[in-house]
Design goal:
Layout: H1 5-10, E1 13-15, E2 21-23, H2 27-72, H3 78-82, E3 85-86, E4 91-92, H4 95-126, H5 131-144, H6 148-162, H7 169-194, H8 197-205, H9 210-239, H10 242-247, H11 267-277, H12 285-318
Antiparallel strand pairs: 1-2, 3-4
Helix pairs in contact: 2-12, 4-7, 4-9, 5-7, 6-7, 7-9, 8-9, 9-12, 11-12
Length: 319
């Protein structure tokens, strides 16, 4: 019996007891359905694994925060936040550490953000594809993987000794800026790549120069992604210990910095000192957890401010 093309693709037509025609699925359709079911199963398994991974990360963060809050909450008082350390740092507060950490973080961003954005603009908008561009990008990727202690030794040799800055806020901010630079360059370059080429073509078609197009069209559209890089840079700069112990932080100073060339105290190094090099390590255990809790809160607070700002910019661009 001859089989029509329609029956081959969709199967022969049969009649049910009600008299209504029902078309059976052909072999091709059954194979397509089986393949589709396999893809749906694979998708469900992968999304389940992704959710489990996200839940593990979130749970780890909650456990760490809970542990810090449980052990350090008793140390959080107004005196602890507004006074300087005293009695071999077993009493008093951590005000110089808070001020030093904020100064280092914002100093690093003020240094790294303009250089990082300018570098990303050159790499994405001006540089010609070729071997030199590949070498530059490879160097940036390798720089992002260098241990922070190596940056600290570089800052000690170059900023502290060679440029004669001494152990100071400026030397520490420059060192942390160098650490944050690869993160900001990478995030900014990806943000620039996400801007559609039609934006550039429309601007150039209206007579704008290439720089006007970048400054007035591309950068505003990429600004949320640039802020994402800044958030990552702030997070990394605020929590580093090894670089600042060589370049900026000291064991103890009761004075707040009045110049960029002053020595400072910082929360990460203060935690290290209390936990390993202090005179009364056991007695200062609540202060250690309290200082760690303040550091986590400070980093989360700076990130939250940047995230809120980024959200407002995105809503403004979408209007």
């Amino acid at each position: 019996m001859d089989i029509t093309n329609e029956e081959y693709m969709e199967g022969p037509v049969e009649k049910t007891t009600t008299g209504k025609p029902v078309r059976e699925k052909s072999e091709i359709q059954k194979a397509v359905d089986a393949k589709h079911a396999g893809r749906k199963l694979t998708e469900a398994v992968l999304f389940t694994l992704f959710r489990i991974a996200a839940a593990i990360c979130g749970l780890a963060l909650l456990i760490i925060v809970f542990f810090m809050v449980k052990n350090g909450w008793s140390a959080i008082t107004w005196e602890f936040l507004t006074e300087v350390p005293r009695d071999s740092m077993t009493k008093g507060g951590i005000l110089p550490c808070i001020v030093g950490t904020i100064a280092l973080s914002f100093g690093a961003i003020l240094i790294a953000l303009p250089i990082g954005v300018a570098s990303a603009i050159y790499l994405n908008e001006y540089a010609k594809p070729g071997r030199i561009l590949r070498i530059i990008r490879l160097s940036i990727n390798n720089l992002a993987g260098v241990p922070s202690v190596v940056f600290g030794l570089f800052g000690l040799a170059f900023f502290v000794i060679y440029l004669d800055m001494g152990v100071s806020l400026a030397a520490g901010a420059l060192t942390l800026g160098a650490i944050s630079l690869p993160v900001i360059i990478g995030a900014t370059e990806e943000a620039l790549k996400s801007v559609p080429d039609t934006y550039r073509e429309a601007s150039l078609g209206l007579g704008a120069t290439k720089w006007q197009t970048i400054y007035r069209v591309v950068l505003p559209a990429a600004l949320p992604g640039v802020l994402t890089g800044s958030i990552l840079g702030i997070s990394r700069a605020a929590g580093e210990t090894a670089p600042i112990m060589f370049t900026a932080a000291v064991f103890y100073t009761p004075d707040l910095p009045s110049s960029v060339f002053d020595e400072i105290m910082a929360l990460p190094y203060h935690i290290y000192v209390l936990a390993t090099a202090g005179t009364y390590i056991t007695e200062t255990r609540p202060l250690q957890y309290g200082t760690a809790l303040v550091l986590i809160t400070l980093v989360l607070g700076m990130n939250l401010i940047a995230i809120i700002w980024r959200g407002r910019l995105r809503r403004k661009l979408n209007k």
